[in-house]
Amino acid sequence: MSQDFWDAIVIGGGAAGLLAAASGAERGKKVLVLEKNSKIGVKILMSGGTRCNITHDCDIRGIIAAFGKQGNFLHSALAAFPPPEIVRKLEAQGVATKIEATGKIFPTSDRAIDVRDALVRWVQQVGAVIEAGQPVLRLSKTGEVFEVETEDRKLNCHSLVIATGGKSYPGCGTTGDGYAWAEQFGHTIIPTFPALTPILTGEEWVTRLKGITLDPVEVQVYQPDPPLPAKANDGLGHQGDRSAESHQPPSAKKSRKMMLDQRRGSLLFTHWGFSGPVILDVSREVARHPQRNQLRLVCDFLPQLKRDSFLEQLLEKKQLHPKQTASHLLPESLPRRFQEEMLGLAHIDPATRNADLSKQKLLSLIDCIKQSQIAVRGTLGFEKAEVTSGGVSLAEVDSKNMQSKLVANLFFAGEVLDLDGRIGGYNFQSAFSTGYLAGKWV
Ligand SMILES: Cc1cc2nc3c(=O)[nH]c(=O)nc-3n(C[C@H](O)[C@H](O)[C@H](O)COP(=O)(O)OP(=O)(O)OC[C@H]3O[C@@H](n4cnc5c(N)ncnc54)[C@H](O)[C@@H]3O)c2cc1C
Description:
Layout: E1 5-11, H1 15-26, E2 31-34, H2 42-50, E3 55-56, H3 60-65, H4 75-80, H5 83-92, E4 97-99, E5 104-107, H6 112-125, E6 129-131, E7 138-142, E8 145-149, E9 154-162, H7 177-184, E10 189-195, E11 199-201, H8 204-208, E12 213-222, H9 243-246, H10 252-258, E13 259-269, E14 273-275, H11 277-287, E15 296-300, H12 307-320, H13 336-345, H14 359-370, E16 372-379, E17 387-392, E18 397-398, E19 403-404, E20 410-412, H15 426-441
Parallel strand pairs: 1-2, 1-9, 2-6, 9-20
Antiparallel strand pairs: 3-5, 4-5, 7-8, 8-9, 10-17, 11-14, 11-16, 12-13, 12-15, 13-14, 15-16, 18-19
Helix pairs in contact: 1-6, 1-15, 2-6, 12-14
């Protein structure tokens, strides 16, 4: 047999591809990883703000829950390679890990490069070959044999693992190549959307606060109100007067119906709008919504303080310090610049004495902080999305071994699959586990 025949070729040297190679080679298989980039594991290097949130401190059910209804697909993969296993593998390579208060697991060194290097070492120690700077251009299968074509070579293999990731951060090599090959082999691609991506807003006050983080913030995403019934339309293209309605707070039942998502966590103001874990988590609903430029965020910037207690606090301050100005009214835990913007939104001059602030004014200030309504202007899209939602349909892949149900010895692992999880290390865990399981069967 020619030198270029491999038991398995893995396309993609990311989290999923490296784990597939390691588990295949651990079983004595001759495995080759082909990576398009000149560096291996680029997304590992850039992950978690270059700290790499490896996985989450929870049981298998916790990981599954982070993927919504798609999560059930992960049962076998997580049973084969649960979260403690990646921690053990890294520690065996000399990379200690730590669990943060949020449950996120990081290398103790806070260096993503330590994780990437440890994975590469493991793969090489068990005998797999990794080649960087080797974009795969074409794939085909004749009889039992796959043919893999790069710029200057044709390679053959018995098993093929497509671990090419999604199409987010396309500058990192992830340009969705795997979707086209999956389709070529007869697979269905569930439409893709950016997920875990920053949200844009046209509100100037938001952009003036760039660089500020608040934690926790409760964020709700609302879809636009449905159009009024036909009789409320005057026939001239004008909708009936909604002003009376729009000044009424929506009923709890209506609010629930219009609410797409609700999450609590850390929020970062940026020069285009919002980022940070809580925003990335709700961005999935925004990015896939057909009217994403008409959605609304309702932010509670002080969720730990109930509205009534907040009002009591402000009234007490007004009574105890009548001569103090409004600039010292808000809790000191809130950043100064944020306090100033909130006073501005409530039309309160910071030089106003507390004694001159009416209860009505205080209530409108509380509304600005606890029920801030922010118009959404879309997301930063695939360019800045941490993951891709959608991908190779799970219905056509056997969750017991990651093998295609349509083509024998064709495997899929990682983000190329129709799987996307929340912020917190869940996406790497899914890539590690699906990659490891695929490698066991090549
Ligand atoms: C900025 C950022 C931060 C993130 N932080 C975290 C985090 O802290 N924790 C977490 O759990 N998740 C994080 N993620 C998500 C995580 O990176 C992905 O879920 C994970 O990388 C998916 O692994 P994968 O192996 O399936 O795909 P990838 O890591 O994307 O790897 C796929 C590889 O395939 C290669 N490839 C593509 N096409 C070809 C081809 N034709 N030929 C050869 N090679 C090819 C690509 O170059 C790429 O290296 C982050 C993502 C981003 C973008």
